[in-house]
């Protein structure tokens, strides 16, 4: 049986998709497959994949009108491996290293793995402050929220609520850039009709999986490369453009946005959509986290990281928060300080970024991840 299915829903990003597929096929393992579900207007990507003449890649093309959730669901439905990982068409996986981690999880009786991530910025990516970011390869840096070992998904969900979903997925199980047993995904589809039952596909999947997976292996093996390309959501975030009006987000099914929680400022950004999805999915799936959702921490993160045009909407939510007002203000201020320090740390890491270190990491991994556009290693 195939150990790992790498599923890639793609649309109109033929160059990056071909690149990462070529890169992963350099791995000699025969224990993985790559599933490409292409929703582009033509099948140019399929022609390029056919030219590779490698049976480990299976390509499917559809011109149906699909949103991101549907494209991803169709790709996952085609998987045949014991474990599945979903990636964007500008991401990559290190197949042999990933399979090694999966075998460890199987020995431990686990059905989900949260891997470490390297980050790669494709040529053409612009940073909102630093300008040209293309060709940059950043090594994985473990954080306090990424603790190696086996963790309870119930505890992981409680931590997410404590953080107000303001710091990403934490250590929740996830199929996007994470490894999940195909049997768990199939059970979710039977119950919900989709692997992504919420506005944010990755957060919705991660929270819902807590109903199907009791424990998760958090690994410090960086077996996934998270790509940021100019046309992707990650690239938009790097450029400081990952925000806007809720009603204009046509890539999100309208039904998922209909019941927006009144305590979340009504604008679209990574953090607001994560919070909305986390609470909505937890409620609909009957999950009961051990602690209440920390709205004040969410508001603090939004004040620090989102454009000032949204400040009045955020402040109005703080003022409307229940509790003794001085305490509300104090807790919010403390969280603001935490996020300012985090942003300062990120700023200093960028300012004093060592190009040689980045290049050495890139060189050591290019046997698996080869950028055919020959980016600058800076």
Task: Report on the architecture of this protein.
The protein has 378 residues and is α/β, with parallel strands linked by helices. A hairpin with a 3-residue loop joins strand 7 and strand 8. Helix 11 runs antiparallel to helix 12. The C terminus is likely disordered.
- Strand-residue proportion: 15-25%
Gyration radius (Cα, Å) is 20 Å
Global shape: globular
Structural classification: alpha/beta
Number of helices: 14
Helix content: 40-55%
Mean pLDDT level: 86
- Main sheet makeup: 10 strands, mixed
Number of strands: 14
Instruction: Flag low-confidence runs.
Output: 359-378
What characteristics describe this protein?
single chain, about 375 residues, two-stranded antiparallel sheet, about 40% helix, globular
List the SSEs and their pairings.
Blueprint (H helix, E strand, L loop, with lengths): L3 E7 L3 H12 L6 E7 L5 H9 L4 E5 L6 H10 L5 E4 L5 E2 L1 H13 L4 E10 L4 E2 L3 E2 L4 E2 L10 E4 H10 L16 E3 H11 L8 H9 L5 E14 L4 H6 L4 E2 L9 H4 L10 E2 H15 L10 H11 L5 H9 L5 H27 L3 H11 L13
Parallel strand pairs: 1-2, 1-4, 2-3, 6-12
Antiparallel strand pairs: 4-11, 5-12, 6-9, 6-11, 7-8, 10-12, 13-14
Helix pairs in contact: 1-2, 7-10, 11-12, 11-13
């Amino acid at each position: 049986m195939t150990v790992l299915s790498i599923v890639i829903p793609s649309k109109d990003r033929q160059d990056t998709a071909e690149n990462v597929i070529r890169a992963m096929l350099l791995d000699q393992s025969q224990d993985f497959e790559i599933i490409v579900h292409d929703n582009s207007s033509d099948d140019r990507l399929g022609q390029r994949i056919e030219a590779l003449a490698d049976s480990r890649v299976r390509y499917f093309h559809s011109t149906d009108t699909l949103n991101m959730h549907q494209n991803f669901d169709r790709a996952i439905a085609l998987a045949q491996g014991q474990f599945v990982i979903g990636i964007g068409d500008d991401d990559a996986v290190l197949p042999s290293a990933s399979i090694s981690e999966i075998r460890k999880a199987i020995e431990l009786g686990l059905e989900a793995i949260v891997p470490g991530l390297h980050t790669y910025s494709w040529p053409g990516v612009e940073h909102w402050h630093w300008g040209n970011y293309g060709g940059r390869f950043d090594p994985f840096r473990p954080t306090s929220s990424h603790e190696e070992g086996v963790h309870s998904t119930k505890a992981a969900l409680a931590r997410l609520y404590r953080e107000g979903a303001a710091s990403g997925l934490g250590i929740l199980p996830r199929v996007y850039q994470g490894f999940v047993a195909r049997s768990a995904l199939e059970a979710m589809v039977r119950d919900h009709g989709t692997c992504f039952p919420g506005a944010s596909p990755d957060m919705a999947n991660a929270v819902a999986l807590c109903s199907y997976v009791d424990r998760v292996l958090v690994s410090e093996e960086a077996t996934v490369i998270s790509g940021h390309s100019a046309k992707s959501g990650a690239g938009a975030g790097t450029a400081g453009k990952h925000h806007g009006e809720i009603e204009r987000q046509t890539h999100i099914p309208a039904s998922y946005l209909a019941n927006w929680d009144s305590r979340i400022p009504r604008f679209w950004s990574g953090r607001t959509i994560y919070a909305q999805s986390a609470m909505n999915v937890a409620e609909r799936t009957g999950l009961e986290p051990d602690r209440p959702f920390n709205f004040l921490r969410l508001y603090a993160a939004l004040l620090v990281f989102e454009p000032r045009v949204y400040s009045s909407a955020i402040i109005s939510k703080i003022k409307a928060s229940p509790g003794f007002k001085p305490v509300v203000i104090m807790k919010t201020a403390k969280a603001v300080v935490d996020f300012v320090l985090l942003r300062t740390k990120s700023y200093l890491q960028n300012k004093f970024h060592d190009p040689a270190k980045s290049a050495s990491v890139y060189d050591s991994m290019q046997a698996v991840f080869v950028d055919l556009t020959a980016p600058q290693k800076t």
